[in-house]
Amino acid sequence: MKGDFSYDRFDRSKHFNRVLKQQGRVDLDADANEQAAISQYLLRTLIVDLLGPAGGPRDNCGFALRDWTAISAADKQAAAAPGLKPAVGDFVMEAGRYYVNGLLAENETAVSYAAQPDWRGPLMEAGKTYLAYLDVWERHVSYLEDDSIREVALGGPDTSTRAQTVWQLKILPAPVAAPAPAPVDEKTAALQAAITRLEAASKQLHAAGQLDQAAKTDAELASLRAQLKEIGGVKATDGNPNAAPSCDALLAPLRAWQPAMMTARLEPAGDEQPCVLPPESRYRGLENHLYRVEVHRGSINPSNKPPTFKWSRENGSVATRWTGTEGNIIRVASARGFAAGQWVELTDDWNELEGLPGTLTRITSIDGDGITVDKPVAWTAALRNPKLRRWDQTANDELVLDDGAITIVPGSGEQGWIRLEDGIELRFDTGNYRTGDYWLIPARVITGDIDWPRDAAGTPLPRPPRGVVHQYAALAMIDATAAGPFVALRTDCRCRFAPLPCL
What we know:
By secondary structure, the chain is α+β, with helices and mostly antiparallel strands. It is built from six helices and 25 strands. A hairpin with a 4-residue loop joins strand 21 (438-444) and strand 22. Helix 3 (186-208) packs antiparallel against helix 4 (211-231).
């Protein structure tokens, strides 16, 4: 959330359920944002408690995977965009809704995997088996990404920003070819046959308006499904060492990702008692700031280099549109807030959506809307909402920058502390770092302190990043084919639920 915020103070452990405004008081952005965070937390928690970690409505469950020849004529017409019809390695995901850990992923119209709005993943290879899954997360959107949130009647000022739910349908190669389904026993087969018969009867009764009889049929259906769930599933793989892993098992490595921790503190004034901060140990800045520390290059990168980070004293909110490049001159919508000597990041939506860092370059001079940099980056029409963002790290006697960012060197105890500015220090732990992971450090002049959790003895505690948090849900196990249909559905991994009044 790279907005110009004063604070982000939501803490679920406090159990607040609303924010109450008082008359005649100062109106803060932090209060309104905390109310939104409280409401979202309560809603998402309720959805997970009712529906579980993932699920979709029975009558409008989204992201069913189909080959182009299998979808309805209406969906074909709605999705008839140029180049949409899939080819080898592609498939169609149908419209509908799916909830992933309380976040609503909504696909308004049938779309091919290759043409989905927020992901540009590799196509499948014919003859291989894949797990199709959803990656759902929240993204910050300002007017730089969506100009429609500005009010043109007021001259288009920069006002509030938005949090957007991003869904990305991705594919993961199965580690082993999925075997043909193992034979099921007679009881399981009988239950499946009975369920199929009752599902057809229920549909007819609902259509005919015979709701009382339909309710009895649905109750019997629920009982049979519970029996099938109790005895089914494991039958197909019991005692078969060559059986393919389940959908959830394939997602386990993604869900098991544990980000590394970071600790922030104020620089001790002396070395006599390094864990005790004397009065001289203060935040020495002249302004209140919301510091943002963000991972630039993650632990996993093509060059196998160590991870790096960048930081901003204004939450990374100083940014402008990037409109073109002429040699070493970057054309921008406004150069306000930028100055010679600063590091800026040239990036666009695709970098952010794909979890890739932008290019850091240093400003050498500014003339009007032209910013001259020491390492230009080509501007192309393929960029999606290109932008220039300011970061505040600088090289000094203690720090040598790596392509404009600071190398993360894990430490412990009194080792590994990195000076930020005005008395603030950071220390990173050993672990996994992902591009876009970030921490926030509110610093206040009146207290001369930073808002960072401490234990009873006043020692600062390590904390995981505040985001970005990715939620995953398995959709289907599919085989890629060389001709139409281009996918063969092996297992539908989605969970579907009926409306509560129908249960």
